Amino acid sequence: MKTIARLALACCAVGGFSLLASSAHAGVIIYGTRVIYPADRQEVVVRLENKGNRPALVQTWLDAGDVRSTPATAQTPFSLAPPIFRIEPHQQQAVRLRYAGESAPGDRERLYWLNVLEVPPLAADAAQNNQIELAFRSRLRVFLRPQALPYPVSSAPAKLQWQLVRHGQGFALQATNPTPYHISLTSVDLLSDGKRFSKAPNKAANDSLLMPAGDVKRFVLPLLRERPSGTPQVEFTTVSDFGARVRHSAGLTPASTQ
């Protein structure tokens, strides 16, 4: 178990999601792009499958947002069963998540991360062929969702508030999330006079398009240098509970006069 924990820490140190080598590839896949945990459920099941041709040793744990977490350091109100297991080639494994907190928060979603660390077995000829076998770690968002929120999650994207604000020598779209849900964005554009102005590309791994409940973010529009006339529209794409991408359109709020 200490060996697996050290491998997990090594994965974190180089940035987190997957480590790749020419002689290795991840064989274990996770079904789904996110986990929704309704607070009134006793447990939620996440399914994994080993698509590779070799057995894999897998360790799972949850963290509260620290990409450098390990099973020994992460602290969350969840339990996982089983935490360590072996998956034979082309076989599946169910991992059961259980909320172990005293009471779930009632006013908004909370975000946690499910870590899945795959340790492939060492090939018999790996040393002779100078091959390196590396561990692969995947992180999946887990949304703990209270049961008494005022409206369904599908209504949340339409409630985002958009303002066009000054940013340096140009402009940016400022988004405010007044909802109790986390909203996952994949694209943000401003349409004006038949032209499309897209947000600047992410420059860092932590430059996230995820907007937690109550969050405010600015998306720089590098090609927009003059305030547009007429009635500009914001077009943005969100990710649903099922991983589907959904397109939305919204106007700017009246306060957008900065």
UniProtKB/TrEMBL annotation:
Span of domain Pili assembly chaperone C-terminal: 176-246
Pfam families named in the record: PapD_C, PapD_N
Chief subcellular location: periplasm
The keyword Repeat is assigned to this record: no
Subcellular location: Periplasm
Xref: InterPro entries: Ig-like_fold, PapD-like_sf, Periplasmic_pilus_chap, Pili_assmbl_chap_C_dom_sf, Pili_assmbl_chaperone_bac, Pili_assmbl_chaperone_C, Pili_assmbl_chaperone_N
Organism superkingdom: Bacteria
Sequence ranges assigned to domain Pili assembly chaperone N-terminal in this UniProt record: 27-149
This protein's record includes keyword Lipoprotein: no
Signal peptide positions on this chain: 1-26
Keywords: Chaperone, Periplasm, Signal
Family affiliation: Belongs to the periplasmic pilus chaperone family.
Protein name: Fimbria/pilus periplasmic chaperone
Source organism (scientific name): Pseudomonas emilianonis
